[in-house]
């Protein structure tokens, strides 16, 4: 009589271990929480049971993305792409079958999942790694992984599979084929059989471990030993008489599938949010330097080397593609949201290079900063120069003339504010209180003057009682509300331009004769200041 393998108890041990490890990590990293995303198309009842099981109380987050039967393949892959790019999501599973009125290629959908988030272990990349025996780089499929764990726990021997004859009945991509590969790479001698195997009985009788996942009712009778079963596959009572160990249904492999899913998700969360985030090691492929004598001009040196694609460089230093804002092929900004992913990483050193007098060859702040950059994870703010010789930032032209265009944008915004101040001072000097008020708060179709939210806040700052209709304001309140009364002698907003042109430093705007002869007023607050 075979001993029953209690899948529920063993799976609970796995979940308890995951929960304990998670709590230990959260003591040091309180914000760490693994997240599993479950994508379901349609509303199969058996699928819902499986989804309900995955919400185990182990301290993880689960997201159920439930799509209707009208979902197209394009819509489904777009959803998976969004989850791939969501750094909070550590694992993704797609419930099969996909119940849609539109044709959907399930293999293409599964393969769309990022390999590092494929906690079901079903993508081509994970399947290929498993078949090649690259176990350290593989996320194991949950059901075969659960079968292996059951064998090890039931026998009390982590090496039990070694040297054993393992027969897998069923060649599915989800259970049969990966189970054979997994047991083979744990040093078992694995054979795959299926419904068309002519000597199935003889193969099963030779097995030390029999894994049955073929979906054919009571295909395996009592003269075959086995490890994994469902009621449709194995005649339970007959097989129990000859097997050493047997898993019941329910309560056998099913709970293990869920437990291993949680374990996979936890391990991937640790890898992506802790191990990868805590590593400060860069793996930069350096450009081969071929210095010439005599050293060419700076611009010739810059043009002699092809800059590395910025996405490749980002990958080498551990940045993700969605953490970049691209500016062509050689420049990018790092988005601030990256700090959230790297919150657990130890801070680097902040180095500021200042006050160095250049040598005759030009080695000054820029050259020193670039040299320090080779040694430090980060370096501080530097000036506008790009270095020189073979210690410079390339491409030199873009670095010096434009870069990402931020300075130009700041200049435009700054000067727009200066123009707004000029315009306001001009209008206040040329118009009556009532005319200004009419411009700021015109009548609507009903004859009312409705204040905007920002205008309501101005009333509050002026300690003027709030009104629903600005017509109710007194003449004095209208005057106080309408006029900023900027004193050009004490409040100035200077225009700027980001270029080093000494001849522009004395330029003054507002010298042309303006209406009402207020040019002198504007001149006093509109001086153009140049870096």
TrEMBL record:
State if rRNA-binding is listed as a keyword.
Answer: no
A Pfam family recorded for this sequence: THF_DHG_CYH
InterPro entries reported in the protein's UniProt record: Aminoacid_DH-like_N_sf, Formate_THF_ligase, Formate_THF_ligase_CS, NAD(P)-bd_dom_sf, P-loop_NTPase, THF_DH/CycHdrlase, THF_DH/CycHdrlase_cat_dom, THF_DH/CycHdrlase_CS
Q: Which UniProt keywords apply?
A: ATP-binding, Hydrolase, Ligase, Multifunctional enzyme, NADP, Nucleotide-binding, One-carbon metabolism, Oxidoreductase
Q: Which reaction does it catalyse?
A: (6R)-5,10-methenyltetrahydrofolate + H2O = (6R)-10-formyltetrahydrofolate + H(+); (6S)-5,6,7,8-tetrahydrofolate + formate + ATP = (6R)-10-formyltetrahydrofolate + ADP + phosphate
- One GO MF term: formate-tetrahydrofolate ligase activity
Q: Tell me where in this chain the Tetrahydrofolate dehydrogenase/cyclohydrolase NAD(P)-binding domain is found.
A: 141-270
State if Cytoplasm is listed as a keyword: no
Superkingdom of origin organism: Eukaryota
Q: Which GO terms describe its cellular component?
A: cytosol
Read off the HAMAP family from this record.
THF_DHG_CYH (MF_01576)
How it assembles, according to the record, is: Homodimer.
Q: Which family does it belong to?
A: In the N-terminal section; belongs to the tetrahydrofolate dehydrogenase/cyclohydrolase family. In the C-terminal section; belongs to the formate--tetrahydrofolate ligase family.
Q: Which PANTHER family match?
A: C-1-TETRAHYDROFOLATE SYNTHASE, CYTOPLASMIC, C-1-TETRAHYDROFOLATE SYNTHASE, CYTOPLASMIC-RELATED
* Stated name of the protein: C-1-tetrahydrofolate synthase, cytoplasmic
